[in-house]
Design goal:
Two copies of one chain form a homodimer.
Chain A: H1 3-6, E1 14-18, H2 29-37, E2 40-46, H3 52-57, E3 66-72, H4 82-97, E4 102-106, H5 116-123, E5 129-132, H6 137-145, E6 156-160, H7 165-174, E7 177-181, H8 187-196, E8 203-207, E9 215-217, E10 231-236
Parallel strand pairs in A: 1-4, 1-5, 2-3, 2-4, 6-7
Antiparallel strand pairs in A: 7-10, 8-9, 8-10
Chain lengths: 243, 243
């Protein structure tokens, strides 16, 4: 038995912090307060190089916190990289067990297609976890495009672009409005589908919404090979949701 | 010709401010800055009584601004009350034309089923309009319930509860996950549908998420007649999105 077992510290709390879509001013007061007060920050990062989540909040950091980069291989076939989450759960768990609060930075919102859920699933039974919702890419794209997502009794479908064509076609036919996310290398397929369905004129493209490198382009002006992961297509069958 | 026509003022800017789901700390830094700096605030309000949007931001108001309540009859059959929006567009337009910036407070996010779009549709061609995205009820409910909305290539359907049963059934059958919004007096129908589809065990109910009167209840503990408009049911077919 260690000294700690005999005189246990109250465990720390794990926060999943939605930090918003990219503009550092689109963080909430609550996320900012926690971001600046916890002793330990963690964030997803590529195998090499800088973390986008950390870059977003960089202007707000006091610079005195311990930081843990959760480095994720960016290879599609290995996603989700269970062993990385296992490792991260262990590393963060040590801080929590020692009584230190930990905040995990999450681009956009933690629970809108976010990877924080894989830590949540591993840790929520053992530790107190609080999720702080953030401005999601979904509403950030709509705001920036000047395109309301949906109104009244519209069915809005959130469709990941990697899905196969038959399924995407069926869902696009049935919904009143759609947000096609994770477009990236699937752009060519999506544009063709929208054209075939006669919906291309009702669709709008945006990449890196609210970030310094934000771009809005007509669908037919997009270079399919250059579309980044952080891109979205919004479609409303009435053209404008308010009509 | 008036003096103003001869020496025109630069027109003001209209802001649609997402103020978040209810907790005053879930407002963004950007919305807070604009909220406190514009000379004119407008907000939706019931025909009589207080505006929920104004209540949410009340702790942040300097108290020196002109305020315009956009009072909306709460009668379903008259929605959307076009004449109220026409009136509001005129009233706000006068301030803008006189060079005063105006911020319209929007609960949650302005473009996620929000009524701000009806002002946007009337005013965006005549005036500069900027929409500031906010934390939507969608992600606030998920965070509070500890229930991630969707993962990887899940199709997430946003389904307004007033839709008819056949349509809701079809959309629930096809989607991997769903958020049923605007539940209110449709709760009984929705619960029965989820039970018939064998999805009730995968569904979670919440009302007034992040507000002082927030409630989370098992589906079968909800009193159907007492369900408020600000309520949501989240469903994921895998039980937990991360699994």
């Amino acid at each position: 038995m260690t000294a700690q077992d005999q005189n246990p510290t109250a465990p720390g709390r794990l926060y999943g912090l939605g930090i918003g879509p990219g503009d550092p001013e689109l963080i909430t007061l609550k996320a900012l307060r926690l971001l600046q007060s916890v002793p330990v920050l963690a964030y997803p990062a590529p195998e090499e190089g800088e973390s986008l989540a950390r870059q977003i909040v960089a202007p707000h950091l006091p610079g005195s916190q311990e930081e843990i980069a959760i480095r994720m291989p960016m290879v599609v076939s290995r996603f989700p990289a269970q062993e990385v989450y296992d490792w991260a759960a262990g590393a963060l768990g040590e801080h929590l067990a020692a009584g230190r609060d930990v905040a995990v930075l999450c681009e956009g919102d933690p629970f809108f297609y976010g990877s924080f859920m894989y830590l949540f699933g591993r840790m929520a039974e053992r530790f107190a976890v609080e999720v702080v919702p953030g401005v999601s890419s979904l509403t950030a794209c709509a705001a920036t495009l000047g395109a309301p997502l949906a109104a009244r009794n519209d069915v809005l479908a959130i469709l990941p672009a990697p899905l196969d064509e038959a399924l995407l076609t069926a869902r696009l036919q049935e919904a009143d409005a759609a947000a096609i996310i994770k477009v990236g290398r699937h752009f060519g397929k999506i544009r063709r589908l929208l054209q075939d369905l006669g919906l291309a004129d009702n669709a709008r493209y945006i990449e890196h919404a609210t970030m310094g490198n934000q771009k809005i382009l007509p669908l037919d002006a997009v270079t399919a090979e250059a579309v980044p992961y952080f891109s979205m297509i919004l479609m409303h069958k009435r053209g404008e949701a308010w009509s």
